[in-house]
Amino acid sequence: MRAPKGGAFLEMIMPDPAGDSSPGDTIHLTVDDYQSFILNGQRGQQSIQTTGTSGFLVCGPYRAIKAGIYTVAVLGEVEQAGAGVVVDVVSNAGLHQFVKTDIKTQAGHGLITIFSLHIPQDVSDLEIRLKVAEDTRLSFQGVRIAERDADRDYALLNKSYANDAHWSVILFGSYLSFVKPYVPFYLVIPRHDQELFAKLFDSAYIVGFIEKLPIILYEDWVLEKTGNIPPAHFDGWHVQQVVKLAFSKLGLSRHYLTCDSAQFFTKPFDFSAAMFREGILCTTARPLNRQEINQHFIDTGEQCWLNGNLVSAGVAFDAIDEHFTSQLDELKYHYIGCNGIFDSNICLALEKRAADFGYTNFCGLLAFSPYEFAWYGAFVTYCLPELFKPIEPCILLPIVEPDQLLDSTAPTGEDGYFGYLFQKPACDTLQPMQTYLACLAA
To answer: What CATH code is assigned to 152-441?
Structure first.
């Protein structure tokens, strides 16, 4: 991707927190900071490149850092990783290691890797080192260390594909306008779609629609890193659901809102105000009578997957509930499928429960019945009721028919809606940019 005008990509990949709402500082280490700590590499204009020699490419630069939780992004490009390529974070001349992560492939555009870092006490000599092999070919462009607030550790996650790329650009633009600046935006895409997304985001930057870039992660990297390799019969829809749950295992955020591509914000959205009640993360759900909703599914002919077969939706969702309770309650919570707000710790507990059921990680759950919100929702409802608080209505106003935009009342934020979600056929009919601008004008 051509760097946006006026700066290199590494200046854009992670937003610098700004203003009083910022939970902490961002430390930016450039190749200049590593100039005196190049061990087995060659300095270029904006990068340090491998030379076919194994060992540490760089060490240092021995910086002071206070205790806290951080997200570390190691910037650069990997052509070939090779065997035994790792990034580690150490202090005390390498005697104390905080974290170590191996590099098998590129994490995302401009990202060698990205990971969470916990510093339990202040350190005066932090090192972020990159070790390479003889056959490694990569360029190292620096490190960004963003501090996170444990009490406000939120993120947005968009899993997108080429067909939805234009919508993802609009979603990201609306995020920049209406979401707190310290909340990171992660965009997960297939590696082979990178060129298209790069072109669209670059164009959006040039015309001034966006002033920074999202944090792009590659789909295969997320799946491999979290140990959730989907079976061959999973299509893109299944993989999307795996990614939404598997993202929790990266440790990049405690709470995250999963966003479909064909949606955008039109009103300020604040996780703290909109998604928490009495300190508990709310789940978008609607209390319904089980018998009535199951009959509704029968009457409307709505079907869902269960063990590879299409059955009435009520049968599929009841089968999920039965994993967590021996007695189905008369009242159930029907989970809204447009936006899932997840707690990473709860997702990890859900994956452990999957092993008790005899399933292999999240892929096993979704192979049985591919509905990530239903699995998460049932788990919280039955197993963690003290952490469950349903919130109604949806976060974003669903639009199915294009005429609904004109017929319905625009979101106010006060009504619980912070923008729009476009479903078929509306998402196939409406033009993303024109629709977004029209909604802002309204």
So the answer is: 3.90.550.10
